[in-house]
Every structure is written in structure tokens, then in C-alpha cells.
Amino acid sequence: MKYNFKSIINILLIIILPFVFILGCENEYPDSIYDPDAPIGETPEITSVSPPDSTLAGVGEITITGKNFSADKSRNAVFFNAKVAEINESSETQIIVKTPNLLSDSIGIRVAVQEAELFSNIMQYKLKPAAVAFGNLMEGSYVYGIAIDQQGNLFLSLEGNEIQKIAPDGSTGLFCATSFLKADNMKMGPNNTIFATFTGRIRKLVAIDANGVETTYASLPANPKDFDFDENGDIWVSIGNDVYIVKAEDQTNQKMLTFDNETYTIRVFEGHVYILTKGTDGADSKIYRAEILDETLGEPELVLDISAATWLNNSNVLCFTFSAAGTMVLGTEAEPDAIFLYNLSDGSNEVLYPGLVAPNIYAMSWDESSYLYVVRQYELDDGTRAVEIIRIDMAQDGAPYYGRR
Predict the structure, then answer these.
(1) Given CB 3.0 to 4.6 Å as the disulfide criterion, which of 99, 113, 192, 291 pairs with 60?
(2) Among candidate residues 250, 246, 230, the one with its CA nearest the CA of residue 238
(3) Residues of the chain with pLDDT under 50
(4) Cα–Cα distance measured from residue 103 to residue 392, given in angstroms and rounded to the nearest whole number
């Protein structure tokens, strides 16, 4: 076959033009983001974790100390096993994170930094539950008084003339029968003796020894609401609008203070008696304190106007106690979070462990460590009663309790 010049030119154009087009389009692509000369970041390294060994899951905060972290917290990632933790602060040598809600005795903590090719070394850690249900009460039980001995045994007064005992391992059983239907309040006294008050025709403070034997400790002039021991062994009791003392030396009683409203929870802390008072239907609720002056009391001083405390969500305060550091712990009917912390020195306040403890908290008692036991009683949708005993790790000790000796 013969080709003329014009035909040869056309054939060459058909072959060459596509390559020209391809070559002309190559410069329209963006430059590659890969820089083979970019420096590789130093591998992060963990040298310590604080608090060491363990803390609370979901509510705790830990500080990771080491090197080669980023001061820009968005460029760090902290893993608890495969779970990524929320970073609160970071520097080149420290990262502060909120613990994830992950319960395990063996958690590997490691750090990744954006510029580094490798993860850090792994630190083994433990996350513990902040609040757990405790004991095994029968369905339909209703708890009134609560007391804890030095060994960590929990005693509960149930309606039906009985006191249940929950051992530290959670096993539950009958401790003893009682002459009274239910105790309004109970406290542990000297020599593992349970003290209890109750309302009714007979008004007295009873003592139940370690064998379950019940005796009358003191007769009272009216129905008591609550009581607490001071360091001298005297007992302070709230009765009607009054505060009484029951003397340790002879078990006689004497009226010491009178308030405009009824008295309820009473606690002894750092040489003062603290008293919760309420008007009708919980209105005009206040907490006062009065200094203990030998066997008398000084003038009452207002420490918390509950009705004016908007941070309590206009809720009814049902009980309170103290940490060793002086923080007041308030049990309430508030929703969704029922326990509040109040600092007496500066008036600051906060919810305890948001999302963990629901209403209604009727009683609370600290053991000899960091555990606070609370009684939560409520109604189910079908109208039946329900009760929970919740053990809360407060990450701090309770205030000295003078009855447990």
C-alpha cells in the first residue's frame, strides 16, 4: 500500500496528539502532600502516672508524665486499651485526661503523638467503679436506719422488727429481731453496740449488743428524729423542735436548744453539733451549727440556707454528713443527680459524680475508709417500693465518727 505525504501526517497526528494531551494535563494535579524530607517526631514515652496504680472509672482524672508529647492536645491521643480518653490539658511532658468508663484490673495506657511513627511504651493501670449496688436485700424491703461497725459490716433496720447484716463481701442475712417495728435511725456505738431510735408509744434510745441482745439505754421525752455521738461519748438527739443531750455517765437527758422549725438530721463535726431544720412540707430548710461547750451548746449559727440554695435545684435535703476534709455531703430528692458536695469555707458546691446516683437518698454512713454507703428508696412505675444500698468510693475518708470505738 502506498501512502502520500498528507496521509502520513494524519497518521502521525492520530498517534502523537493523545500523548501531548496527557502530558499537558499532568500539571493540573495538585502537588503531593507527602514530603519525604519531613522530620519524624520523637517517640513518646510514659515515665509515670498519677495517681499511681488505680483511680475511679468515668469520674477520675489522671496525669501522665513523660516526654515527647505535644503541647497541642489535639495532636495527642491517649488509649486505655482500645478506648480513647478525653484529654483535658497537655504539654510536652504531661497529659491530663479524664478516665473513661472502663472497669478492669488490667488496662494498658499508651500515648500516640501525631508526628511520631510509634506509640509510647505501655503503663498497666486499674480503673475501679465509683458507685455500685451493695448487698442482696429481698424485693419489697424498705430500709430505715443504717450503721457500720469497724470491720465494715453494714446493719440495716427493715420494717418488720428485724435488723439485716451485710458483710463486706456483700453476703446478706438476718442479724437479730427487735422489739420495735423499725428504727428511724441507727448508729454504731462503743464495743460494736448498735444504738437505735424509733417513734411510737414508747420513746427511747435502745442498745443492741454484738449478740443481738436489746436493752434500753435512755428514755426520751418525745419521738426522736436523729442522733450522733461526740468525742466524750455523749449523744446529741433531735426531738421535735429541740436538741437534747443524753449524757454518757448516767444516761440522763436535758434539752439544750430550741428552734422555730422541727429538727431532723444531726451530726457532730469538729467540736460543733450540726442540725437540719425544716418548716412545714420542707419549707424554710436550713442547717445550723452550735459549738459544743462541755455539756452545753453555744448560740446556733446558720451555715446553709437550703431554701435559698438554687444549686440544689429546689430539692428537699433528706440527710447529710462530712468528709474528713470538712466537705458537707448532702443527700437529696433532686433529679437527675441526688448527692451534692458543699464546701463550708468558701461556699463552693458541685454534684457528686454526675450521672451515677439518682434520687432519693434517705440515709448515709461512712465506713473507716473512703466508702460512703447510702440508702436510696423510690417507687417503680407500677407503684411498688424499691430500695438500693449503694457503696460509693468517695476517693477521700469520712470525718471521724466518735461512736465507733
Answers:
(1) 99
(2) 246
(3) 1-13, 16-30, 32-34
(4) 15
Q: Which of 108, 128, 148 is the last residue of a domain?
A: 128
Let me know: does 13 contact 20? Beta carbons within 8 Å: no
Q: How far apart are CA 100 and CA 83, in angstroms?
A: 7
- The residue type of 231 is E
- How much is the pLDDT for 32? 44
Whether the link from the prior residue into 360 is cis, omega within 30° of 0, is yes
- Residue with the three cell numbers 451530726: 267
Q: What length is written for the chain?
A: 405
Domain range holding 262?
131-393
**What does the alpha-carbon distance between residue 267 and residue 363 come to, in Å, rounded to a whole number?**
12
Give me the sign of the Cα torsion angle 308, 291, 347, 313. Answer: negative
The β-bridge partners of 5 are: none
Report the side by side order of strands in the sheet with 54-56.
54-56, 123-128, 104-113, 76-80, 83-84
Write down the pLDDT at residue 159: 83
pLDDT at 19: 46
Strand, helix or coil for residue 21? helix
Rounded CA separation 348/307 (Å): 16
Question: Rounded distance, CA 96 to CA 346, Å?
Answer: 26
